[in-house]
């Protein structure tokens, strides 16, 4: 008989609906049950594409004896970390402080008020792996909860204070200088792996925000090394396009095979900027292949984007993606040897006796003439395999990242299909992921949108809508962005200390109200809010938007300069604040040629507005007139403009 999770929409929670565990979703019912029965809460957090989450489910949550013990002694709560980043962040910090490490699946034991007193990650069903078994851990928790209740109660207040400490950080108005930022970038470069790309050793996660920061600062050597190493490695799907979540080794060869929407949106944009900066056509190719993969495999019928493809298929990690020489020869026939050589396929293999395809002769090696035909044949053959599980929920924040990537790539590369996909997705989010009061919601599946939106949903969407406006010059997207910024400031802003809480003022009360920071693997809500508000300020001339962004920087910019890889998106906001920012206003009837000139290079310190003569939104366009009835460009800094120009060459010279 299905448990309560059968009423949820999260694919991860639905995976557990037939467990014999009496699971509750996170919410008031579970907490009230724990209080009324005076039982501790066993909180299990994971996500649908998580390999070890599947392992722990098979080993423990599907085991009748284990489930019986859990049901007898605990109120059991299952959380999808992607749906509930607020819950995940609180208890991940607790586990990291208790054990020195974190990860998923995460297992945390809470008192009936939700205060954690013990936790860890994956626990095996037996003791044979150098770890206590899950049953041993549970028995120890039951014993401690029975015999040490007073001690657990006494520690609860201190635990609450520690978990809420980030929300109490005081501002430091001594903003780092341009010289400080130079030193920070030098520190980031010093930690780079100059042979294989990325930073430090294995495992390696694609450092999208750090690469964007370096490109913004004109540093390209580490960027090129990293982009090349990733596109040549197994972390990149050489057959179907798109990137896996991370590499288990230092050379980007063996991925953890799950494919996440957010990484692919961020990396498509990084490769686009790499192409604009360095001119390598292989970067443009990877950008387009990644976005084409998103459109082909991750797009729902309404235009929103799914969350992830699992690492596992048929119970094995990576099974869907690996190859043998015999199988490739069977598919390709004559000419297979050149393809085998190009992708480094051998009889011995490079992954558990099979082969992860990679560019064996490096990123610049000339491909065989038949490669595109071979790729299509391999893709069609692979598509007949048992596919990895699909997490088909649509998350507002991750869809916002997709909107930004598709919009900018569409405008820069002249891909109308990308622009159409971006506008359709934006309309879907704005129409279908709102409640009756117009507030953003977090998640959508099967026509059901639910859960209060978080700061990252608002901040990522603010950045995306501004990018969509600059890519289309359709004023509706600017107007939506401005309205969203007002909502974000009102509902998430900390009027006392500055910055933004991760949850809104009307969100359910948790044991701590936090301000999320840290931009790896994806930007934090505060970082995205700061950069989005600075761009909005440049388009509107309204100092209060800059003021709200500056309050974020006052809180976090100083520690960000000490940990650049972790805070790279926030440092991009600091860079935008410190650098001379250009505002480009285009007026006239046909702005395509002038807009293409602006988009012809990576210009991270520029905002673009455009519209017919007489436009007053964005305010950057007010009182701008055409010259001799021709499309006209104004290049400004701090709303002081140079003489207007009417031809692309003159505009390019000004820029």
Mean pLDDT: 95
Parts with pLDDT < 50 across at least 5 consecutive residues: none
Structural classification: alpha+beta
CATH architecture of the largest domain: Alpha/alpha barrel
Oligomer: single chain
At the fold tier of CATH, the topology name of the largest domain is: Glycosyltransferase
- Count all strands and give the number: 19
- Tell me the domain tally: 4
Instruction: Using the alpha-carbon principal axes, give the shape.
Output: globular
Number of helices: 24
Instruction: Give the spatial strand order of the biggest sheet.
Output: 1-3-2-4-5
What proportion of the residues form beta strands (DSSP E)?
A: 5-15%
Major β-sheet profile: 5 strands, mixed
The CA-CA distance between the termini, in Å, is 66 Å
Percent helix: 40-55%
CATH class of the largest domain: Mainly Alpha
Rounded to the nearest angstrom, the radius of gyration is 26 Å
Structure description:
With 655 residues, the protein is of the alpha+beta class. The chain has 4 domains: 4-165, Glutaredoxin, CATH 3.40.30.10; 178-310 and 391-578, Glycosyltransferase (Alpha/alpha barrel); 321-384, no CATH class; 582-654, no CATH class. 47% of the residues lie in helices and 11% in strands. The chain has 24 helices and 19 strands. The strands form 6 sheets. It has a 5-stranded mixed sheet, with helices on both faces. Helix 23 runs parallel beside helix 24.
Provide key terms for this protein:
five-stranded mixed beta sheet, four-stranded mixed beta sheet, Glycosyltransferase, Glutaredoxin, alpha+beta, 655 residues, 4 domains, 19 strands
């Amino acid at each position: 008989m299905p448990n309560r999770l059968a009423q949820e929409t999260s694919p991860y929670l639905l995976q557990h609906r037939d467990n014999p565990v009496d699971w509750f979703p996170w919410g008031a019912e579970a907490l009230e049950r724990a209080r009324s029965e005076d039982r501790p809460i066993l909180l299990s957090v994971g996500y649908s594409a998580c390999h070890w989450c599947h392992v722990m489910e098979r080993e423990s949550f599907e085991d009748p004896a284990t489930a019986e013990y859990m049901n007898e002694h605990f109120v059991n709560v299952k959380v999808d970390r992607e749906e509930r980043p607020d819950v995940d962040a609180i208890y991940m910090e607790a586990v990291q402080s208790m054990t020195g490490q974190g990860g998923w699946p995460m297992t945390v034991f809470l008192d009936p008020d939700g205060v954690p007193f013990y936790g860890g990650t994956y626990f095996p069903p037996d003791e044979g792996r150098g770890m206590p078994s899950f049953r041993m851990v549970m028995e120890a928790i039951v014993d401690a909860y029975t015999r040490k209740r007073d001690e657990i109660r006494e520690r609860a207040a201190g635990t609450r204070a520690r978990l809420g400490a980030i929300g109490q950080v005081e501002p430091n108005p001594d903003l780092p200088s341009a010289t400080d930022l130079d030193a920070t970038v030098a520190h980031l470069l010093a930690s780079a792996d100059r042979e294989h790309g990325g930073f430090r050793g294995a495992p390696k996660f694609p450092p999208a925000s750090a690469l964007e920061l370096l490109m913004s600062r004109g540093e390209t050597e580490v960027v090129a090394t990293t982009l090349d190493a990733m596109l040549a490695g197994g972390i990149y799907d050489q057959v179907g396009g798109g990137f896996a979540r991370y590499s288990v080794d230092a050379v980007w060869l063996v991925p953890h095979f799950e494919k996440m929407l957010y990484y692919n949106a961020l990396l498509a944009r990084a490769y686009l900027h790499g192409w604009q900066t360095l001119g390598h056509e292989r970067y443009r190719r990877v950008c387009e292949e990644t976005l084409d993969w998103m459109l082909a495999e991750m797009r729902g019928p309404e235009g929103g984007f799914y969350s992830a493809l699992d690492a596992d298929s048929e119970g094995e990690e990576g099974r869907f993606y690996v190859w043998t020489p015999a199988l490739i020869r069977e598919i390709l026939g004559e000419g297979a040897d050149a393809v085998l050589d190009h992708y480094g396929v051998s009889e011995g293999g490079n992954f558990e006796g099979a082969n992860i395809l990679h560019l064996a002769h490096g990123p610049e090696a000339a491909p065989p003439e038949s490669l595109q035909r071979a790729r299509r044949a391999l893709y069609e053959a692979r598509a007949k395999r048992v596919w990895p599980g699909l997490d088909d929920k649509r998350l507002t924040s991750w869809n916002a990242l997709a909107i930004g990537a598709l919009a900018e790539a569409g405008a820069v590369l002249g891909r109308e299909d990308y622009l159409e996909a971006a506008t359709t997705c934006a309309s879907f989010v704005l129409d279908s992921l709102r409640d009756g009061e117009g507030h953003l919601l977090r998640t959508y599946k099967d026509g059901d949108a639910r859960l209060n939106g978080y700061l990252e949903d608002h901040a990522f969407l603010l950045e995306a809508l501004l990018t969509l406006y600059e890519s289309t010059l359709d004023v509706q997207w600017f107007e939506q962005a401005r309205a969203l910024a007002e909502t974000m400031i009102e509902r998430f802003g900390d009027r006392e200390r500055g910055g933004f809480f991760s949850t809104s003022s009307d969100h359910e009360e948790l044991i701590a109200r936090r301000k999320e920071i840290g931009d790896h693997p994806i930007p934090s809500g505060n970082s995205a809010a700061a950069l989005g508000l600075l761009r909005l300020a440049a388009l509107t001339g309204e100092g209060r938007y800059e003021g709200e962004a500056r309050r974020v920087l006052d809180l976090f910019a100083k520690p960000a300069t000490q940990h650049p890889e972790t805070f790279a998106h926030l440092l991009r906001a600091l860079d935008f604040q410190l650098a001379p920012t250009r505002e480009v206003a285009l007026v006239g009837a046909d702005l395509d040629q002038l807009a293409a000139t602006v988009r012809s290079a990576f210009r991270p310190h520029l905002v673009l507005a455009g519209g017919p003569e007489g436009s007053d939104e964005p305010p950057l366009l007010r009182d701008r007139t055409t010259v001799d009835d021709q499309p006209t460009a104004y290049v400004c800094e701090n709303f002081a403009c140079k003489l207007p120009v009417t031809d692309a060459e003159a505009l390019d010279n000004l820029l």
